[in-house]
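Exercise 7. Predict the joint structure of the components listed below.
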Amino acid sequence: MTLTREQIASIAALARLELTASEFPVYQESLSRIIDFVGALDACDTTDVVPMAHPLAGLAQRLRLDAVTEEDHHEQYQPNAPLTAAGLYLVPKVIE
Amino acid sequence: MTLVSDFHRSTLTQLAAGLRARRFSSVELVSAFLERIEASQRALNAFISVTREQALAAARIADRALEAGTGGPLTGVPIAHKDIFCTQGVRTTCGSRMLDNFVSPYDATVVAKLKAAGAVMLGKTNMDEFAMGSSNETSYYGPVRNPWDPQLVPGGSSGGSAAAVAARLVPGATATDTGGSIRQPAALCGITGMKPTYGRVSRYGMIAFASSLDQGGVLTASAADAALMLREMAGFDANDSTSVEREVPDYLATLEQPIAGLKIGLLREFFDTGLERENERCVREALKVFEGLGAQLTEVSLPHLPLSVPVYYVVAPAECSSNLARYDGVRFGYRCENPRDVNDMYRRTRGEGFGAEVKRRIMTGTYVLSAGYYDAYYLKAQRVRALINEDFIRAFDSVDVLIGPTTPTPAFAIGAKTADPITMYLNDIYTIGANLAGLPAISVPCGFVQQLPVGLQVVGPHFSEARVLNAAHAFQRATDWHTRVPRGYA
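Solution:
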């Protein structure tokens, strides 16, 4: 199968990835090959097989009390942010 | 490289004992290894950050503890962390431009546990970007070189940790394994690499790639060293919801047990697919060693195992596309310049911050999870994953461990496989199965092909780390492949 340039554009838009013009043919080719490669799974009969999400499927998921366990660490965390003001994370204006 | 000491000729176990006996100080040890790291950095590029000042300060504290007799099992022992583990106050990049300026506000549980055991961190090792690669060529900080031949890759994604241990720049290093990222570089660099059972080592503070596969482990010169380090790293952690509440056995206590009667399964599928003849010869020789130690060999078949690479390249990208959604240029990491609006910020931040292979996997994952394809790819892969898991469980009904090669070939040239992702992905053909099923597995050196090391893989049932380490240690007591050091670093 060959993915079209439009399909690559749509995948990149879903993934929030800006691609340069020169990246399009590269990903068109390699993604098509990967999708063909994983197509080998089609030949395997999986009727009535329960999908395995993770290796601990046999173990019950651990639960904890619904209590606050985290303190406010924003002063420690925000030095890593690209842009902050008054303890808030700044992003470009979303609403006009 | 000028030799200032011969500490690097000792194993991690010997160094820990020497420190406790006060034969030398941690400051002496740390200084000697820092010198080796700095002297080899240009040639190998094994480190992204070297934390000289912090290391010497920690060594001085370790020396006081040793003097007071209050040291732990690893007090004063120098180690390195793969740059995927968050280290408080120290830059943690995950090999990516996206996190080039990220200074972690907290320690990963693995880092905290090794610190509590007394280990001294010398720096953060280079790696494939976000652990996505089998050659260390996808790192934003440039490729790591194999100490056995600088024209060759060290393997990946834990290539920096593997090269560092192989060149004896540190006696041990942490690493992570999602599809073979501990075992494959261990094999290509001629060292020992252990991936524990999924859930055995906390993933808290270990930057996520594919959450149902990722597991932390160790790279060392021997199985005995791996046992010592792993014993300190493993254990339940309430901060990781996939951490298993189960006691950690003393892996050292069972290390010396004889392996006579051990039932070894030879995976037919491993010998069928792409294994180079000379690699096969090394593995067959190793099997004779096990037979000589009284182990019983039988051939077993895991019919669905050949599908493990296609399963992996659906499951891992799917989980990666979800995990890497957090890199949005808002709370930490890279942000593009002068974004027009918030969507432009997301798209350019991610387009510029991620490298080519990471983008390829995010897009593959996005595709297989998108409407109309989810059942055909993602759910299908999870069903085949269940069949592979059942194959392993069935095999362990009749054998104690499975043994086979770690990789189909020895180390390959830098640049040789970058053009074709599928060729690169097939490097992990023998290692991915253990990740899909969540099994513990180790790679140990078992010979050389044209002066390049070859790895042997031992896979055990869930939570059988002690048995896997015991088998690997028995092999290393009978052989000396693991003591070989690349020329120039001996």
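Discussion. Chain A has a mean pLDDT of 93.
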